[in-house]
Amino acid sequence: MNSIYREGMRVVEQFLQRYAPGCEDPRNEGARARVGVLAGWLGIGFNLTLFGVKLAIGILSGSVAILSDAFNNISDTGSSLVALIGMRLSVRRPDREHPFGHGRAEYVSALIVAMMIFVVAVELLKESVAKLFHPQPVAISLPMLIVLALSILVKLFMFGYNRAFGHRIDSSVLLAAASDSINDVIVTSMIVICAFISSRTGWNADAPAGIFVSLFIFYGGYKIAREVISLILGGEPDPELVRKITEMVLDGDGIAGVHDLIVHDYGPGRRMASVHAEVDEDADLSAIHRSIDAIERRILKELGVPVVIHMDPVAVNCDKTNALRAQIVDVITRVNPRFTLHDFRREEEGESINLAFDLAVPGEMGEEERQKALGEIEKAMTELDPRYRLIVQVDNHYAP
Fold first, then answer.
1. How far apart are CA 145 and CA 143, in angstroms?
2. Residue 312 main-chain phi, psi, to 5 deg
3. Structural domains of the chain ordered from first start
4. Edge to edge, what strands does the sheet with 271-280 contain?
5. CB contact set of 29 (below 8 Å; sequence gap of 6+)
6. Rounded to whole angstroms, how far apart are CA atoms 338 and 333?
């Protein structure tokens, strides 16, 4: 199996290099669109063929499970069409109403695919339940089993190219199509098994198989919808992208620290980022500005992500301030290891010592829990020195 998979991937790579070179670069919208459109047309052709063949066999045999699988294929045809349209729309250039482009059209098309799957699943479930209470004999034949077996092979092929294309161009729609195809393999295999059981034992497993098919289709739609809704709402950014941006910023001249990295996702190839970079408050402003410009250009060139870097001046060479920072970091870590601190400043005001900083906490942490943690931090610092007065700005963690 591994050798077959490797050979298949080699063929895919050769095809993509000839048909759509550079498609893995999200900024190469033309090549990326060609891959998505090709996958969409292939899906339409294969699914229409499978629908016609299974519909004929389902009617001739009276099998509700096969009819269910046939209508699952026609829903897959609609899904491929929606995916194709979504891929075409996603590469449209920005306009006055959509200055960040139309990349999220791909996410919307994937959500429409999920809704179509839900509708088909509900209708087929109703029909299968009716058949459960009013069973009808199923005519099992060798041609029927052969066609279903060929259907499994076709769906395995569709899973393979959709998965390979989807990973290569980072397409949620094509990866959803791949997931749907492997679900179809499992469903059709179940139908073949039930048909074999019926022929051997006389027990009519058609209605239960139809119910299973419907529920499995519904679950597949739920998984797709959950993933796509997360993308539309704004999910957690790619940890690898976060790591690379952080490392590139820290590699810049004069950069002492990084925090508040936020990645904005406007669709494949349309990610933007903003980040705060800590710099020595005594550094030459013009030199730091040149360094930050160089970092922004490097990130755009190597990662394809426009990034805006905000400078935060901090005391880098003040031993007293650094000692206090280490002290409060130790306290914060003991209260909650997931807390981080940045923008630390020390100011003496009469007999008080003001310790001002931003505290980054997990976004899911409730207000009551946050206030309790702040109280513990203030109590611990006051016990160390009664002159300490904390001025804290609480931020959310936006990146893992």
1. 5
2. -115, 110
3. 2-233 (1.20.1510.10), 236-315 (3.30.70.1350), 318-400 (3.30.70.1350)
4. 255-265, 271-280, 307-314
5. 91, 269
6. 7
* Residues 212, 319: Cα–Cα separation, whole Å: 68
pLDDT by residue for the chain (400 residues), tens only, comes to 455 556 555 666 666 666 666 555 555 666 777 777 778 888 888 888 888 888 887 777 776 667 767 777 777 777 777 777 777 777 777 777 777 777 777 778 778 877 877 877 787 788 778 777 776 655 566 767 777 788 888 888 888 888 877 777 777 777 777 877 877 787 777 777 776 776 677 666 767 777 877 787 788 778 878 878 887 877 778 888 889 999 999 999 988 888 888 888 887 767 889 999 988 888 888 898 999 999 999 998 888 889 999 888 887 777 777 788 888 888 888 888 888 888 888 888 777 888 888 888 887 888 888 888 888 888 888 888 888 888 888 887 776 6
pTM of the predicted protein model: 0.63
Between CA 376 and CA 334 the distance in angstroms is 10
Query: Residue 355 in contact with residue 328, Cβ under 8 Å?
Result: yes
Which value, to the nearest 10 degrees, does the dihedral of the CA atoms of residues 150, 154, 157, 163 take?
Answer: -130
Residue with tokens 């001739």: 60
Which tokens sit at 57? Answer: 């066999």
Task: Encode 191-221: b = buried (16+ Cβ within 10 Å), e = exposed.
Answer: bbebbeebeeeeebbbbbbbbbbbebbbebb
- Determine the Cα–Cα distance for residues 186 and 287; give it in Å rounded to an integer: 61
Please provide residue 257's backbone torsions phi and psi, each rounded to the nearest 5 degrees: -170, 165
